[in-house]
């Protein structure tokens, strides 16, 4: 198991956002976290990446306990993520967004950078090349000089993924990566995710979109912060509790 | 550039040399303030860090007899050390709350300086040694006591050197990382950037230059008083930066140069000087939103803000 | 320590807390509701005291009436401040700051020019001494405390019970949502600014009577206001009262134990400790 949570719980004041959540993501899988709005999906991501501290419970990554570790430490251990909103450096260009995200690998020291020594210049040109490779992967290479805030919505979402790839993640957490995209954009994104997976990256994503769910090997369904079902898309679709959570009781149908 | 070097020859009058020297010193300080602002933090206590450098270097050279050439960089380091100590708690809050806390810190530092009268003197620190003479055997001897011209040249060199370093910092990966942190601390931390640590770093480096400039000032003016580094001067520094333009490197240079000159030129109307200064600032705010240096951006196509205002998106 | 001294120090603590709270409330209101760091607050405080002086001493108006008038005048200046400073640059904190700073510079120099920088004193609002159980307490300080506490109570009631108060809370928590709900953000900010300025003016006048007036009195008071806000917490209005009380008490008792200068260091230490271990303050919401 690459990622595991055990009894993960978070209370905000008196409100239980996540309750005793046990989930796991295996190496090479694409797992989807789904649930109605407000079910606590983004909170789970924030708990895993250390943006919020859990009230109780633990998170394990690659066998190591990462509970409560700071976000930048979690990133260094190999977890990349996108956000539902606020996912870019808006004033940087597309290229700069990715280049700036190459902070961890290769790492340049302060003095190295200041004095512009050859080793630093080599690292920077290597980063430039890698950044362009990633942009080609996600299809944004033609737009590299455009300020990110001027990108259309779908492109911005894709840029998020590009950015997250710069940390050489073993696990990619994608928070609603195709929300608001057109059908064509979604199909394109699916292709990107498949390509990413084929390069050995495990993907754990949050989504509402049914097409994305078909991409997933497995789905975990939560509602009101609790896991209510788990299994393949087919299994989950037939689960009564899931139907109830999404569509209300039969009377309302 | 050539103009700057020939300046003393052309002007000659010591008073105008004095203004130029002061402008140069403040160019360093305001540029260093802008460095801190690159990471999305506006420090409203910056003058105090200038003061730490000034007092540290002044006291060390005066009481221990060390050469100012040695104590001036030490002043910068002292200021940086203080910035690290205070920066760690201060950078726990962001954007406007950081400004509030830095305002507090700045005034506190000056209060403490006033209180430590045993070392800092009752009404100020006097008798600070000027820069020690440079003696190159067989060539020349440069003395600084009572001479403005050597001070001018060396200040010019210092300012240029500092600007080169500051420019380099901004345009290498460190600067890019700072700008990223300013735009979104969430995104920055998700790609492995220790955003809190980076913010402390920018605060520390900025304060180093402020301390350096402050120490240099001490050995030029030979007297320092707490009032030079207090609440109002810190506010002026922020103003110089914002009026000159926060987005471009040249902004603080323009802002400091112009706004230091104005009160000096209106010296005769001594009490009205701040009034005129205030009026100028109001004008600039209304007519030139990106500061004076921002006027040069007319010709550019798509604008590139350097994170102006974005830090507040992520305030509490 | 004799009971007499203890009594006086206690009253002093209450009085000081009161002034701190008055000053910090206005500052916190503007900070929480409008996200504005109102540097001009220090100047408003000072100007309030001077206006009161001009009315009471120079124009010979009755003491209490002067206080009222000064508060009204400075409060209305708050409207100007909001119009000129905050409203045009709403959402652009940099330009708001420059405007506010420009205003301080202008105001301090205007006062300097008109009045000169030597120190003045307002006559006492409530001269004389109270005797209670053999302890003599300055009536002035008790009255100051009473006024501060009363104003605080009024303000809290205003915020909790009136619609405008509710709107202010809404804007401070979620400005975009508030606008969508039809709340006139500018009206709310105007009211908040007027209240903030009025409170500061009262504080300035009272302090002018207890101690004195000088053009730079606002600076140290602003520092105190910031201390209170940091301790109370970002976003908390009610917490300001508690924080003010704590800091006022500390500042009254500490000089007895340590030298006066050490109180500054203690203030700094408190702020640093809070920032390190609880940056959101005692009552604030998370940063």
Q: How do the SSEs of chain C run, as a string of H and E?
A: HHHHEEHHHHHHH
- Secondary-structure content class of chain A: alpha/beta
Q: In one word, what is the shape of chain A?
A: globular
- Count of the separate structural domains of chain A: 1
Strand order of the largest sheet of chain A: 6-7-8-3-9-10
Query: Which geometry of chain C do the CA atoms define?
Result: globular
Q: H/E series of chain A, N to C?
A: EEEHEEHEHHHHEHEHEEHH
- What is the CATH third-level topology name of chain A? Rossmann fold
Oligomeric organization of the protein chains: heterotrimer
Low-confidence spans of chain A: none
Structure description:
The complex is a heterotrimer of chains A (253), B (316) and C (287). By secondary structure, chain A is an alpha/beta fold. In chain A, 39% of the residues lie in helices and 23% in strands. Chain A has a 6-stranded mixed sheet, sandwiched between helices. In chain A, a hairpin with a 2-residue loop joins β1 (3-12) and β2. The model of chain A has no long low-confidence stretch (mean pLDDT 85). Chain B is globular, with a radius of gyration of 19 Å. Chain C has a two-stranded antiparallel sheet. In chain C, α1 runs antiparallel to α10 (239-257), α2 crosses α9 (217-232) and α10 (239-257) packs across α11. Chain C is mainly α and 287 residues long. Chain C has 11 helices and 2 strands, in the order ααααββααααααα. The longest helix of chain C is centred in the N-terminal third of the chain and has 32 residues, at 3-34. Helices cover 76% and strands 3% of the residues of chain C. Chain C has a domain at 21-218. The chains are: A alpha/beta (253), B mainly alpha (316), C mainly alpha (287). Chains in contact: A-B, B-C. At the A-B interface, α2, α3 and α4 of A face α7, α8 and α9 of B.
Task: Write a concise keyword list for the protein shown above.
heterotrimer, A: 253 residues, alpha/beta, Rossmann fold, four-stranded antiparallel β-sheet, 10 helices, 23% strand, C: 287 residues, 2 strands
Structure at a glance:
Chain A is an alpha/beta fold and 253 residues long. In chain A, 39% of the residues lie in helices and 23% in strands.
């Amino acid at each position: 198991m690459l990622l595991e949570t055990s009894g993960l719980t978070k209370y905000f004041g008196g409100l239980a956002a996540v309750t005793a959540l046990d989930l796991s993501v295996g190496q090479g899988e694409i797992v989807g976290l789904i649930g109605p709005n407000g079910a606590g999906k983004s909170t789970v991501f924030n708990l895993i990446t250390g943006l919020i501290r859990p009230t109780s419970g633990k998170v394990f990554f690659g066998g190591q306990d990462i509970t409560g570790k700071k976000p930048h430490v979690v990133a260094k251990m190999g977890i990349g993520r996108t956000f539902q909103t606020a996912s870019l450096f808006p004033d940087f260009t597309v290229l700069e967004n990715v280049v700036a995200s190459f902070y961890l690998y290769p790492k340049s020291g302060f003095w190295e950078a200041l004095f512009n020594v050859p080793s630093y210049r080599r690292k920077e040109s290597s980063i430039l090349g890698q950044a362009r490779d990633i942009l080609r992967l996600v299809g944004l290479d033609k737009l590299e000089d455009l300020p990110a805030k001027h990108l259309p919505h779908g492109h911005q979402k894709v840029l998020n993924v590009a950015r997250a790839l710069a940390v050489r993640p073993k696990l990619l957490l994608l928070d609603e990566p195709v929300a608001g995209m057109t059908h064509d954009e979604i199909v394109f994104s699916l292709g990107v995710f498949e390509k990413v997976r084929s390069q050995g990256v495990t993907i754990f994503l949050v989504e509402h979109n049914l097409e994305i769910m078909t991409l997933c090997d497995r789905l975990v369904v939560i509602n009101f912060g609790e896991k209510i079902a788990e299994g393949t898309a087919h299994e989950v679709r037939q689960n009564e509790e899931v139907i109830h959570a999404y569509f209300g009781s039969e009377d309302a149908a | 550039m050539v103009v700057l070097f020939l300046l003393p020859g052309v002007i000659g009058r010591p008073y105008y040399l004095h203004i130029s020297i002061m402008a140069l010193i403040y160019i360093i300080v305001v540029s260093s303030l802008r460095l801190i602002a690159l990471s999305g933090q506006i420090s409203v206590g910056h003058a105090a860090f200038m003061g730490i450098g000034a007092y540290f270097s002044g006291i060390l050279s005066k009481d221990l007899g060390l050469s100012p050439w040695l104590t001036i960089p030490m002043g910068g380091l002292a200021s940086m050390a203080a910035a690290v100590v205070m920066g760690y708690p201060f950078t726990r809050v962001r954007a406007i709350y950081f400004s509030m806390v830095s305002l507090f810190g700045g005034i506190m530092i000056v209060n403490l300086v006033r209180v430590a009268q045993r070392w800092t003197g009752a009404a100020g620190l006097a008798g600070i040694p000027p820069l020690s003479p440079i003696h190159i055997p067989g060539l020349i001897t440069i003395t600084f006591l009572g001479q403005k011209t050597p001070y001018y040249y060396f200040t010019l060199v210092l300012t240029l050197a500092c600007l080169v370093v500051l420019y380099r910092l901004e345009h290498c990966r460190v600067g890019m990382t700072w700008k990223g942190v300013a735009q979104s601390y969430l995104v920055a931390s998700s790609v492995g950037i220790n955003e809190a640590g980076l913010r402390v770093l920018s605060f520390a480096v900025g304060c180093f230059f402020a301390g350096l400039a402050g120490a240099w000032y001490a050995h030029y003016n030979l007297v320092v008083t707490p009032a030079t580094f207090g609440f109002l001067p810190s506010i002026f520094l922020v103003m110089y930066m914002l009026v000159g333009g926060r987005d471009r490197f040249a902004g603080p240079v323009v802002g400091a140069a112009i706004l230091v000159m104005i009160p000096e030129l209106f010296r005769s109307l001594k009490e009205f000087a701040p009034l005129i200064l205030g009026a100028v600032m109001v004008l600039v705010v209304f007519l030139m939103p990106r500061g004076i240096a921002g006027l040069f951006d007319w010709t550019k196509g798509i604008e590139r803000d350097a994170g102006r205002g974005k830090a507040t998106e992520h305030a509490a | 320590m004799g009971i007499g001294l203890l009594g006086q120090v206690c009253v002093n603590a209450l009085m000081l807390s009161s002034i701190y709270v008055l000053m910090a409330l206005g500052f916190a209101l503007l900070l929480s509701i409008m996200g504005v760091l109102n540097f001009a607050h220090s100047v408003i405080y000072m100007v309030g005291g001077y206006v009161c002086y001009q009315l009471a001493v120079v124009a010979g108006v009755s003491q209490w009436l002067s206080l009222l008038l000064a508060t009204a005048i400075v409060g209305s200046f708050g409207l100007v401040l909001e119009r000129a400073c905050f409203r045009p640059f709403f959402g652009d904190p940099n330009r708001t700051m420059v405007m506010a700073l420009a205003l301080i510079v202008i105001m301090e120099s205007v006062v300097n020019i008109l009045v000169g920088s030597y120190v003045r004193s307002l006559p006492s609002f409530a001269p004389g001494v109270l005797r209670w159980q053999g302890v003599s307490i300055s009536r002035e300080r008790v009255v100051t405390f009473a006024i501060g506490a009363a104003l605080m109570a009024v303000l809290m009631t205003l915020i909790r019970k009136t619609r405008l108060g509710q709107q202010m809370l809404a804007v401070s928590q979620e400005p975009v949502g508030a606008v969508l709900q039809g709340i006139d953000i500018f009206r709310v900010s105007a009211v908040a600014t007027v209240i903030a300025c009025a409170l500061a003016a009262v504080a300035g006048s009272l302090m002018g009577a207890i101690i004195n007036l000088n053009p730079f009195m606002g600076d140290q008071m602003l520092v105190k206001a910031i201390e209170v806000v940091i301790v109370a917490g970002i976003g908390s209005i009610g917490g300001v009262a508690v924080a003010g009380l704590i800091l006022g008490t500390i500042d009254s008792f500490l000089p007895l134990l340590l030298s006066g200068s050490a109180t500054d260091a203690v203030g700094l230490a408190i702020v640093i400790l809070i920032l390190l271990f609880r940056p959101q303050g005692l009552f604030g919401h998370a940063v």
